[in-house]
Specification:
single chain; 463 residues; 19 helices
């Protein structure tokens, strides 16, 4: 056991400690976090001592503990200081405040949801639930009068769900006055305007509910009928109703391929692809799955540019740490983050064993179908505990449904991405350009309708 832990492995060990620590502190009272954070200096002290003695086991223990303590410090910083300067201090009171709309508003059947960052003398964010009209946009500075409320927990921990976005106050039935517009980031405003124009163009040629599925697949937002949503849940296809991490990887691959065929240098391909990935993640609202895929794609592009191989398990650990450093609340309170990483781990660790069992059984043309089925089952097995816990439902028909549908999502994504600019340039060809996306979505709805009607399609659990 003598020697030193290699530097590369030492970093990964500390990262594992950080992830474990984040999980631990996610379920620990806020007042207890300081107790564990105070051990960070002690951990550094012991690390320096035992490094000289070259005891690998003790070095690993200290590295894990060090990562653990760093995670505690980071988690502690995610808690706001609630005092008279923080807007949530006034929950339960009627308040007049001004603030900036800092995110693309979500449109729901009940109206619009605005995330507003309060202006001085206050700080903090407020979720304002306004009527559908008048429309308020990102970059609007508003004056709001309403009764501030603390998020109420009903079917799930709504307070923790909002806290991961640093929101501790809700404002319902507000009186709103627009003070000014276009006060946000100019680049982000431009990207959101591109998104809005794309929505308007697509909705001209895609009738409902076709547009409600095709557009969220590409842009990550939209509303769909509750009955249709339930059918997607029963068939295990809810994940295709929102932008996935695969879309980000697909976008990176498309840019790389097109630019490579154009004779562009590797370095220039890297820069352009990274900018495209960042822009796309921003447009779709930066969900955890897209952020995870974006960071991983950038690392893979960097390795490709440098001509180096990448260890996928190590990359998963590093990306997990990076995303948790950005928002440590994700591990416990963001289902999208949990499902994204668990599905990836299922493909990395469960799928190879399943492939080994079937290698000598299935050969030839049927191998592709078997591989797709195994990948679906591996991802489903890895994510099943989270799905059952959060949604109380497990889809038995999901492997078949995914094999019949998921292969089409990349084609649908690319066809919509190509049809949007071409339809904007040549409106007369809009119906022709969107015929293929319409046909694919109709096929998806047909498959979902048939499979969801099977009495044994899913199992309900009481959680």
């Amino acid at each position: 056991m003598e020697g030193d832990v290699p530097k590369g492995k030492a970093f990964i060990v500390a990262c594992v400690g950080f992830i474990c620590g984040t999980g631990f502190f996610s379920f620990t009272a806020q007042s207890s976090v300081w107790l564990y954070c105070s051990g960070s200096l002690l951990g550094i002290f012991f690390f320096l001592i035992f490094k000289k003695k070259q005891q690998i086991f003790l070095q690993i223990v200290i590295l894990v503990f060090l990562g653990f303590c760093i995670s505690g410090a980071r988690y502690m910083l995610s808690y706001p200081v609630i005092n008279k300067g923080h807007i949530s201090f006034f929950n339960g009171q009627e308040k007049v405040f001004s603030g900036l709309v800092i995110a693309d508003p979500k449109v729901a059947a009940s109206g619009r949801q605005l995330i507003i960052r309060a202006d001085e003398p206050y700080q903090g964010k407020i979720l304002v639930k306004s009527a559908a009209y008048p429309e308020y946009m990102y970059g609007d500075r508003l004056e709001v009068r309403c009764m501030l409320q603390k998020p109420e927990n009903r079917e799930f921990a709504y307070d923790r769900y909002l806290a991961r976005l640093d929101i501790y106050s809700i404002c319902k039935r507000p009186f709103i006055k627009r003070l000014s517009s276009e006060q946000g980031n100019g680049v982000y405003s431009f990207l959101l305007e591109v998104k809005r124009k794309s929505y308007e163009t697509a909705q001209l040629y895609l009738p409902e509910p076709t547009a409600s599925l095709a557009l969220p697949v590409v842009f990550g937002s939209g509303e769909i009928d509750d009955d249709i949503s339930d059918s997607f849940r029963r068939t295990g296809l809810t994940h295709i109703m929102a932008v996935s991490g695969f879309n980000v990887s697909l976008l990176a691959a498309l840019f790389s391929i097109v630019l490579a065929y154009a004779g562009v240098s590797r370095r220039f391909i890297f820069y352009i692809s990274v900018l495209a990935i960042i822009a796309y993640v921003a447009i779709v609202g930066a969900p955890a799955s897209a952020v995870r895929a974006g960071v991983m794609s950038i690392f893979l592009l960097l390795a490709l540019t440098a001509g180096r191989l990448v260890s996928i398990p190590r990359l998963i650990v590093i990306v997990a740490v990076m995303t948790l450093m950005m928002n440590p609340r994700s591990l416990r309170d963001d289902v999208s983050w949990q499902l994204s990483f668990l599905a990836l781990l299922g493909l990395v660790y469960i799928l190879p064993y399943m492939q080994k069992w079937t290698t000598n059984i299935i050969r030839g043309r049927g191998k592709f179908i078997v591989e797709a089925t195994l990948a679906t089952i591996a991802a489903q097995l890895a994510t099943a505990p989270i799905i059952v816990y959060n949604f109380g439902q497990f889809s038995i028909i999901a492997p078949l449904a995914n094999v019949l549908v998921v292969w089409m999502i990349p084609v649908l994504t690319v066809s919509v991405m190509l049809a949007l600019p071409l339809a904007a340039l040549f409106p007369a060809l809009g119906e022709v350009l969107f015929f293929l996306p319409w046909l694919m979505v109709k096929y998806i709805f047909t498959i979902v309708g048939v499979l969801s009607d099977l009495p044994w399609a899913s199992v309900q659990f009481k959680v």
